[in-house]
Structure formats: C-alpha cells, structure tokens
C-alpha cells in the first residue's frame, strides 16, 4: 500500500505539524525498512515525541500504530499501481484493479466492529431518514437512500441544501436520523447539515474520510472511507468511490442482518410492487 500511503500523506500534509511531517517524510522515504519498528523506536530515530508518532498514525486513519506499520511493510514489495504514459489500456485496467483493492482494504482497516454495529442499529431503529451529500457525494448519498428504501425505510435524499434543512425540521430526535456523506468531511454544506441536525438533537451518522475532520467531530457516529485529495489528473482520484460503495453496502447488509426475516419480506414486497407498476 506504499503508493496509496504516499497519496494519503500528500493529501493530509497541510494538516500535519512540523514534527508530524518529519514522520511522514521518513516513512515515505524508508517504507521498505520500517519492518517491525515500534512507535518508541521510530520516535527515537526521528528525535520526536512518541505522542507525535501516535498522533500521526491517528491522523492517517489507523486505530493503532502497528496497523500502519503492518500496512506499509506488507505492501512495500507489491506491484506498482502508478499509471504511466506508456501503459496500454489493459495495463491501466490491471493497475486500477490493484488501486481498488488497496482502497477497499484501507476502508476495512479504518472501520471498527463496534462502529459498524452502532451505525446499523441507528438505521434499524430510525423511523425517518434524511440522506445528504454535496455535489458528487449526492450521487452516492442517493444510492444509499434508494438502498434504504429497498429495505422498507422511509428515507429521502435531496441535493438542495435549503430543501434539506427544511426537511430536517420535520425530523424528531426519537425516530429521526440524518446520514451525511462527505468523502473529505470538510465541505461546509455537509458540515452545516450535520450541525443543524445536532442542534435539533437529531442523531447524525457520517460517512467520511478516515482522518479527523469537522464532520466526524460533529457526528453521533461515523463510518470511515478513504479520500484522496489529489485531483491533478483523472487517474489520481480513480477508485476512491469504491471504498464508499463498500461502506454503503456493508451498512445496508448489516441493517438487514438485524432482522433478516422482516427485511426480506419488505424487500420482496417492494420488488413485486415495482414489477407490477412496470407492467
């Protein structure tokens, strides 16, 4: 995951302190040699505090320092996924496959069991669900909304910020739920919807970047995805949505698992109704 790790470091670099940048630079340059290094040993090598090393791994989206080192070590000799000028379409496809797999593994590593269970419980118990995503994230939020509707949930999704906040006023704190999808977790519009919900004591489930960000700090609960901020070429951001889709499908499947019989019946009824309307 060295290529992905490097991309993540570059996207988060402005958020790092000077000491954290020292850690980032060292790991990028010496990823092949970190081996089984501990946080104490790395801090000693770089003449920084152990707390700095631990804080860096947290900002990178890892729950433990060892997870970050394991990712770097296990992928140091992996195939290069950087798309080069001379690559044929088939080579491009192969490299994108590797990048997709890296992003999916990173999303799995970024989410804890208890977070997934809490998110599923929130959705399962909600009576009315409002989904929101800004611009590109709206497409993903809309897909999540329709998946919830397929389970029989009373879910809506609106791209318009003003309309979303109007809908929010109709939600109650007991059975209402707002799901905000923002890959970066920093868009003012998405953070604004979350803040408006929290002000009304409506719980917020965020789906956003694994690093600490304004949205994750506001949310009642959070599911993590991998955002790559580099947009210098079309290739740099390809595959990012794969981690979002994995998290969305995991959430839907986890909700289904809480009442398989009930949700299966609702899903079948919805399919029958849909095909009847088409005829």
Overview of this protein structure:
Helix 2 (18-29) packs across helix 4, helix 3 (39-46) packs across helix 4 and helix 7 (113-125) packs across helix 12. This protein has two domains: 2-78, Orthogonal Bundle (Arc Repressor Mutant, subunit A), CATH 1.10.10.10; 113-278, Rossmann fold (3-Layer(aba) Sandwich), CATH 3.40.50. 37% of the residues are buried. The radius of gyration is 21 Å and the shape is globular. Helix content is 59%, strand content 10%. The protein is of the alpha/beta class and 279 residues long. A five-stranded parallel beta sheet has the order 2-1-3-4-5, sandwiched between helices. It has 13 helices and five strands. The model has no long low-confidence stretch (mean pLDDT 84).
Provide tags for this entry.
single chain, 279 residues, alpha/beta, Arc Repressor Mutant, subunit A, Rossmann fold, 2 domains, five-stranded parallel sheet, 5 strands, 59% helix, 10% strand, globular
How would you summarize this macromolecular structure in one to three sentences?
The chain is of the alpha/beta class. It has helices spanning 2-12, 18-29, 39-46, 50-59, 65-75, 89-110, 113-125, 136-150, 161-168, 188-199, 214-218, 240-258, 260-278; strands at 128-133, 154-157, 176-182, 204-209, 221-225. The chain has two domains: 2-78, Arc Repressor Mutant, subunit A, CATH 1.10.10.10; 113-278, Glucose-6-phosphate isomerase like protein, domain 1 (Rossmann fold).
């Amino acid at each position: 995951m060295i290529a992905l790790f490097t991309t993540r470091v570059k996207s988060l670099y402005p958020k790092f302190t000077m000491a954290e940048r020292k850690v980032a630079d060292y790991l990028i340059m010496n990823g092949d040699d970190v081996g089984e290094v501990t946080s104490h040993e790395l801090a000693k090598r770089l003449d920084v505090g152990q707390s700095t090393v631990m804080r860096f791994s947290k900002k990178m989206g890892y729950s433990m320092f060892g997870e970050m080192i394991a990712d770097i070590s296990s992928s140091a000799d992996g195939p290069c996924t950087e798309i080069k000028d001379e690559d044929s379409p088939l080579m491009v496809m192969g490299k994108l496959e590797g990048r997709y797999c890296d992003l999916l593994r990173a999303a799995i590593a970024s989410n804890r069991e208890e977070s997934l269970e809490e998110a599923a419980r929130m959705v399962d118990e909600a009576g009315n669900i409002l989904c929101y995503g800004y611009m590109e994230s709206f497409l993903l939020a809309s897909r999540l909304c329709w998946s919830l509707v397929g389970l029989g949930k009373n879910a809506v999704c609106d791209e318009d910020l003003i309309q979303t906040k109007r809908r929010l006023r109709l939600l109650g704190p007991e059975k209402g739920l707002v799901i905000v999808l923002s890959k970066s977790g920093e868009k003012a519009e998405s953070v604004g919807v979350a803040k408006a919900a929290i002000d009304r004591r409506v719980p917020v489930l965020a789906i956003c970047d694994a690093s600490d960000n304004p949205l994750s700090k506001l949310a009642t609960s959070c599911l993590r995805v991998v955002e790559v901020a580099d947009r210098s070429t079309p290739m740099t951001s390809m595959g990012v949505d794969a981690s979002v889709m994995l998290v969305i499908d995991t959430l839907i499947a986890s909700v289904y698992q809480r009442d398989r019989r009930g949700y299966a019946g609702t899903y079948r009824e919805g399919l029958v109704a849909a095909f009847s309307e088409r005829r």
